[in-house]
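Residues and backbone
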Amino acid sequence: MKKILQMIILLLLSISSYSQNDLGWNTILNEQFNNNYKGWHTESSDLRYAQISNGQLIVKFYNKGYSQLNGVAVTFNTNKDHIISFSIANLNGDASKKYRVYEKKNDGSLKEAWENSTTWGFVWGFKDWDNYNCIVFYNNREYNQYASGNYLYNTLVKVYYKSNGKTTTALDWKKFQYIGTNSFNVTIEQYGGNSVRIYTGESLIYSFTGGVFQWYGDKIGPYIGSGAKIALDYVTVKEKKPHPKTNWTEYSLKSHWTKNGIDAIEGIYENAIKSDNSPKYELAVVKSDNGYNLIYLSGAENPNWSVGDIKAYLTKTATPNLYKAEYFMGDKSANEDLYISFENAVMKVIFTGRQENLYIKLYPTSEDNITSIGGEKSSGTGFALSSNGYIVTNHHVTNGASKIKVKGVKGDFSKTYNAKVIIEDKNNDLSIIKIDDPSFTSLGSLPYKINSNIIDVGNSVYTLGYPLRASMGDEVKLTNGIISSKTGFQGDITSYQITVPVQPGNSGGPLFNANGDIIGIINAKHLGAENASYAIKTSYLMNLIQVMNTQPKLSEINTLSGKSLSEQVKYLKEFVYIIEIN
């Protein structure tokens, strides 16, 4: 029972982890200004100029004291979330100049005037000039005796909305950028009528929750102040799709697998460590036509998650056990910039630029008696016990296997041998298998011996193994460290705690001392601590050998003593194998 508890708390090592996109959104407007199918105003007059040219909408307004909207109607569902993106450029640019405009006299004639504080921006949710939302930019210069030319130039931004003729300023002329460009890529995220976030590029310039920005009307478009001349490169509007759902529940999934069988990847997984960015999710992996679906079962902190919601779509890559994920974050926003890998009973969610999340498989266990069907291979590590084909690995590597294959004998990874379990020790997580293949001859003369003496704290140790093959490949990997404790997790006397870094796939690998003797068998790492791994003491392996019906002949000679680490590895790597499980 202690070993079972340990495996729940630790990572089983056989067991070799934001940006908006189109996954959760429908594009309802994609205006690139290649034509004028939406009907933007392109009529020119004495007081305005507008045209579509070279993929831009260019607008200039000359009426002093007034502003203008060049807008088009977009059909919105006001109860849904929307993302409005556009690129707008101020073609005037220079805050030190005045720009010619005109005033209309009583007789209808125009009088020349000047404007030196031109504003421009964007309007959305426009119904009329008494009901709309707006972001406005303004180029400003301010005196500074230390600046070149005694002036500093910057851009100010204002955000406001007008409801029933009353203007409410949400952001009042915030200084946010020294002018190096007069072009801005702006994203407005409007969440129903509850909140709004506004970005320029990657910078958040405004965020508010409280239901103040409404969809008063259906028009959007550039705001042009008196004297302003702007160019709009594109406008896109996306509307959030309903979150994809299934009818799966934990009960229906288990019933499905009991009836139809389950492959090596399918099952129920739980996030091993809760963090600020990663709730204690319980998720199910179920096979789909195109790969696998990740199904939400429990653990979300966002109450909008329901049992059966899709958490991710997984699509195969060219690398075995590694999947490209279309993943829904905690706020249900879509993220396609991540991958998910599987190594036996561990699922790893691999985020770009962020710590990986590890999920331990909770279902099925060996006691659930679920039929295993064809699926992805999982793998661990094993090492030669005797020249006639006996190999040591972990019980949790071979547990429940319908087929066991061994790769890497004498360094040949092109040849695979069938193997079978000879004896297991579930309590101490040990398994001895034997190659059972007509093409097999011998593993060769072993260059090491098994040392069952207790090793003191501080002694140097190292391991060889095949971790994370999905991303690291099939070349044997060396990691080293020291014995940090003579006892394992929670004082377990059957194990050493070591500082040797190990990963999923290292399970069953040999732990060597500086002379090349085998002193332990890698089986776990502590997920909540740095540089804390565990290896079963070889005395427990010797106990298991003693109860075998036919005991293998063990090597009694170590030919590695006195050799450098790199020289030892040259010999040892031919006796450390990939153990593949189906």
In short: The longest helix spans residues 250-260.
